[in-house]
Amino acid sequence: MEMKEMQTKLLQRKKEMGGRIRSLTRPLHQRKHIRIMEDRVNQVLQATKSFDKLLCSNQALRDEIDHLRRQRCSFALMYQRLSRELLSQHNVMEDLVEKSVLAYDQRSEALARMLAVRERSKKDTSLCHTEMTELKRVIDHEIKLRSFMVQKGLSRRERMGGESLETYQAVHRLLLEVSGDSDLRQLGRTFVENEEKSFAYFNYINELNNNSTMLKDRINKLRVRVHTHTRHRTELEQRCGLANNLESQYTVVLKFLDQHKTAISHLFDKMKCNPAPITGRLGCSAQVTDDNVTQFIGRWTLLDNPSLSQPVGNAKALIRTTFFMNSKENFTQDIQVIIILLFHF
């Protein structure tokens, strides 16, 4: 049984393999397929080797790039540090240049001053020598003149020795008559005291004169300030009067405009004009206001009805006539012109 089963399995296996001929030719196809697969494996191995080489070179390049990046960071830090040092060096150079320019200017000024001092010293020296020569000449002349006067005085004193005593006695008697005091020392002390009092009075008078001058200056300044304040007060009063006048005129104008706005509104209603174009354009109510009064008056010019043109003209004439009758004495010329332009169309 087992033999039959084995034979049956062999036959079945041969059928699956294609019989005997197919089993003989199969190793050839297998060897060819093996060669093809070996060639493919070799190609894959070569490609794998090439890929491995590329991976190795890529890794080396990555390492080199990382190294270069680290070097770039270090170089950037070094560049920043060197830039700061260069900037500080430039600042130091600029400071040194400014200091050198200032020192050069000071040196030039000092040299100019030295030259001026030398020239002045030379001039002073020459002037001093000239003055010394002149003074020596004057001193010699004074010495000669004094010796001459001494000789003359001696001779005159010898001649007038007797007359001097009489002269002194006459002066003494005159002082006694004037002062009433016979003591010459007391008379001298009194004279000195009077001189001191006179000097004190003189100083006091000078102080009073100075104070008087200062007070006069202050008075003049106060007068100028008072005049300025008076002028400003006059201008302020004039401006206040003008403002009050304008305010009263403004009140009259407002009253006049309110009256005429009421009249325009009644006239607009009597003429049965349609205010829709005005209210639609302005987006406001149908009442006559300061903003739309000119539009209400201008609306009259658009009337094509001959029966209403005459009343409109009469109304315009009535408004202008009433305005001029009421405003000639109450309004200024400028306000009259403004209101005329307001009602002109």
Descriptive account of the structure:
The protein has helices at residues 2-17, 19-179, 184-270, 276-282, 293-299, 306-327, 333-342. The chain is mainly alpha-helical. Among the domains are: 1-48; 90-155; 253-342, no CATH class. The protein is flat. The protein starts with a helix and ends with a helix.
List the helices and strands and how they pair.
Layout: H1 2-17, H2 19-179, H3 184-270, H4 276-282, H5 293-299, H6 306-327, H7 333-342
- Outline, from the CA principal axes? flat
Low-confidence stretches: 304-312, 322-345
Quaternary organisation of the protein chains: single chain
Radius of gyration: 66 Å
What percent strand? under 5%
For the report, how would you describe the main beta sheet? none
Q: Span between N and C termini?
A: 138 Å
Average predicted local confidence, pLDDT: 75
What labels describe this entry?
mainly alpha; single chain; 345 residues
